[in-house]
Amino acid sequence: MSWWRALLNLPPKGEHWSEQRRTKKPGKKRPHSTAPEWWAHPDGPVPPAPRQAQGVAAQYSAPQTPPPAGGVMAPPRRPAARQPEPSGARSPEQSGGHRPPERLKQRSPHGSHPAPVPARDVLEPGQAPWSTEPESSFSTWARRFFRGLVVVVLLLAAISGVRSWISPNRTPETVVSGQSTFPSDEARAVATRYAVAYLTWDEGNADARPNQIGLDLAAGLDSRAGWNGRGKQTADIAYPGEVKPDSNGVTATVDVRVKVHSFVKQGQNWAAGPVTWDRLSVPVARTDSRVVASGPPTFVPDVRAALPDNMPEAGAPDDDLTAATRKDAEAFFSAYAESDNKVSAVTSPGSTIRSLNGAVKFGELKDWQVYTGNDDERQATAAVTWDGAGDTTLDQTYTLTLRRTVATDGAQRWQVAAVG
Fold first, then answer.
1. What b/e string do you get for 375-398 counting C-beta neighbours within 10 Å, with b at 16 or more?
2. Is 125 left (phi over 0), alpha (psi -120 to 50) or beta?
3. Predicted structure pTM score
């Protein structure tokens, strides 16, 4: 028997609980009744046979005559009136003999012989007093599965602990546990308006700036925000950027870029000065009702950064296809500057490209390069010069997707399928 069957008090493999031999509880033994049953003697009740003498008394007891074979000893009868005996006859008591036993009439269909009973087989040493029966494979599998499941559950309960099942650890609802719950969109809106108000002032209307700053600054903070009340400056355009929540999940900083128009005082008038872009880091905090600015912002320098080393490459140049498609590229950009109808006539079937609708005019295709790829689609780059108002020109670089098309006469062409 395996150890886990012994641990769970299970029967040996292949046996059932019902096959186990039940042992009788030790108790008081009832004395064996020696009285004959009443139904075996229809003539009347029979008193129980006297108990056999034991010990020394057995030596002086009268010898008992065994009943003849095939019969049953008759019980003693009640005394009846003594009949006069014929002269010269002697009773059994007077003659010193015993009264011969009488036989009871048997009502069994077998007569005086009982029905034969098959004899039991003698158990060999070590043989179980029960027999095993074959069990179906499904019931065997189900019993083993559920017993194994009980063992696994007990082991898991011992490892993880019952307490963790009943009362697991819970994070308090009042604690902010992650940065994803911070309202970034609202923080950008508040920081943008606050940055515009912060970089706008006019000494001729000194009360206007504190009123605008007070819309987003937390209550109780100084709405002058460090301004000395002199000069004039306006901010009209602002672009919010990245929101960086702190680890506490309550405060954050918002990156905002603001376009600023400065003025220079000349006598009693103000002359327009240079236009600059300022970059601010605006501190914000989340309250129960809304996001507010938690203090004055700080200037952050805008520095130029080089391209990363892992910039994706377009691939190896395909000089033959570049030379074969240069004229088609010039026709595309000429139509691209004018109207949608002209663009649809030179683009790949199934693609939709919107034109610039005359905002600029096509000047020249300064550079054109097609790269290697599969037989149906390629990548290309184009450096285009656009003609603006007057003598103004502007160079731009485009990335395009070319797709191979086959005409009804079998001619093949590479046409623009997408821009950008």
1. eeebbbebebbbeeeeeeeeeeeb
2. beta
3. 0.52
